[in-house]
Amino acid sequence: MASENHSQENGVQNVMEVAQVAVVMVPLPAQGHLNQLLHLSRLVSAYDIPVHFVGTATHNRQAKVRVHGWDPSATTNIHFLDLPTPPFDSPLPDPNATTKFPSQILPAFHASIHLREPVYSFVHELSSTARRIAVIYDSLMAYVVQDICSIPNAESYCFNSISAFSLYSFYWEVNGKPAVTTVEKAVRRLMDSAKGEEMRKRAAELGDAVKQSVMEGGATHKEMDSFIAHISRQNISSQI
Question: Which PANTHER family does the record cross-reference, listed alphabetically (predicted)?
Fold first, then answer.
């Protein structure tokens, strides 16, 4: 059994006193989802915007321990807020499961439903000291942030952390993994053809373009600047 206790890390109250714009991250309690929003938190915090990463103590600790390449605890603008949930089971993975969906984490998902009230309370408290609050939530946590719209100076943004391929794979398994031999044969014929070679070359070019986009001056970098300017409601120059 796992039980969560409410706590705030040192410095959160001080940040609330001075923040003009603050960001609240609401991740889904699963590693692949936690990790994505934690990295986004790092990007946002580089613009001197305080980021509050909210979740259960267990999952906040998991996010910090499993991240690679940097230390979230050493980033002064990222603040972890541990929120309470009822006790929940933590069963072992089932190696004989008919699908690859990690059903052992479902109890944590169900417990996260109870984050709705504490997340709202925290954002409401933060709204009295911050000029504007941007709540960025995992697409599977919409039920937790549904009350944020009632806070005048808070706005919510959905973060889609699941790819179209992942969704397709999930529904394919749910539907009993119907045969895809026809599609597979067609794809193999295509990839073995001259057109397939052209597609591989194009994919390599796209890969290079993606790498360049995240560099300073790249498209993704500019989009991040644009998003920060939007939530700050001011023009900014690139700072990352």
Answer: ANTHOCYANIDIN 3-O-GLUCOSYLTRANSFERASE-LIKE (PTHR48044:SF23), GLYCOSYLTRANSFERASE (PTHR48044)
Q: Of these residues, 33, 52, 59, 79, which one is catalytic?
A: 33
Range 74-95 average pLDDT: 84
208 catalytically annotated? no
Structural fold of domain 7-166: Rossmann fold (3.40.50)
Domain locations in the chain as residue ranges: 7-166, 179-240
Evaluate the CA torsion angle 207, 161, 41, 3 in order and state its sign: negative
Q: Is position 59 annotated as part of the catalytic site?
A: no
Write down the pTM of the prediction.
Answer: 0.72
The pLDDT mean for the chain works out to: 80
Q: Looking at per-residue confidence, does 210 or 58 come out higher?
A: 58
What number is the average pLDDT over the span 187-191? 69
Long-range CB contacts for residues 148-157, cutoff 8 Å, separation at least 24: 148/119, 148/120, 148/123, 151/120, 151/123, 151/124, 151/127, 152/127, 153/127, 154/123, 154/127, 155/231
